[in-house]
Amino acid sequence: MRILVTGATGVIGTETVETLRAAHVPPHALVRTARRATDAGIVPWTLGGSPVPAGLGGHWDVIVHTAASTRWTMTRTEALAANVAPLRAVLALAGRDTHLVHVSTAYVAGERGAAATEFDGYRNGYEWSKAVCEEVVREEHPGPLTIVRPPLVVGRRRDGRIARFSGPYTLLHALVSGLAAVVVGDPDGFAEISPVDEVARAIADAALGAPPRASRTEIVAAGLASLRLATLIEVTCTALNTFRAAHGAPAIARPPIVPPDTWTRFFLPLADRCLSPFQSEAVKLLAMFQSYTSMATPFTPTYPVRDPADAMTTAVRHWAARKPRLALAEPRPWTLLTHNPSPPQSP
């Protein structure tokens, strides 16, 4: 079986490659969207921005497309260039019999706001571009298609290992630094997370299984068993404080949860006026993240995630062990800017 994996050095791509190798079906070529490759098994290719490298031609039985920019602050133009253009470059490699396993995000089917927003109701350019990618792949790929939709991803269930600390790990840094003085969201809202190895297993099962006769979508999620936001914060703080106690550091306080409407009406204007530019920007980015962890309705999984609290605890422990200086840092409270009064006028 000839398999191509894109984004093979990313969070999901790294785990997918290891899962395929463990199944004794190593991918024939591993691709990353970078100019240089540090691994002898990696073929560097700026997807959609340069010609196809030698060795990537010929028929592919399966193409697993994990490459993507997950940056939430992208504009529409940036998101199209980062995610849609590379997808079209990958589609050019696929034949009519190629089974395309396209990694999307569960949030393309999540809650949306008013349709008049910049991203058609989606919360950011990443989310919007992944929805566009799903439309493109369904319209333009003539062969078998499986779309895999993961939620927020944390480290492996058994040991917490992950290729890069991103996404939910923003919350850990914010908690120990003091930037998360409040958490924005609904305490009873659903917070969907999945260990990266379970996402990779869903992808590998699709790649190694029989190609579907009709397009299918796999949703990796815990559904009604997912954590609520208040529980996610409690689990995270407990794991952090267990690590801190073992190293003689004082516990961090669990931050209060502020409803989004209250945050927007009262706290955000105060933050703009009184916090430093760095703190204000960090708080806004953290508020964007919290919208993913306070959904009114969970996803309906086809690939259920069990015991997400255990997965989150393991992920926090691994992060703390790898980032002890951060995990043991003394939180710094918000610093309010002081405005000097105008100097007295000369008589």
From TrEMBL:
InterPro entries: FAR (IPR026055), FAR_NAD-bd (IPR013120), NAD(P)-bd_dom_sf (IPR036291). It holds the Pfam family NAD_binding_4. Signal peptide: none annotated. Residues 60-203 form the Thioester reductase (TE) domain. GO terms for biological process: long-chain fatty-acyl-CoA metabolic process; suberin biosynthetic process. GO terms for molecular function: alcohol-forming very long-chain fatty acyl-CoA reductase activity. This is Ketoreductase. It comes from Streptomyces griseofuscus. The lineage of its organism: Bacteria, Bacillati, Actinomycetota, Actinomycetes, Kitasatosporales.
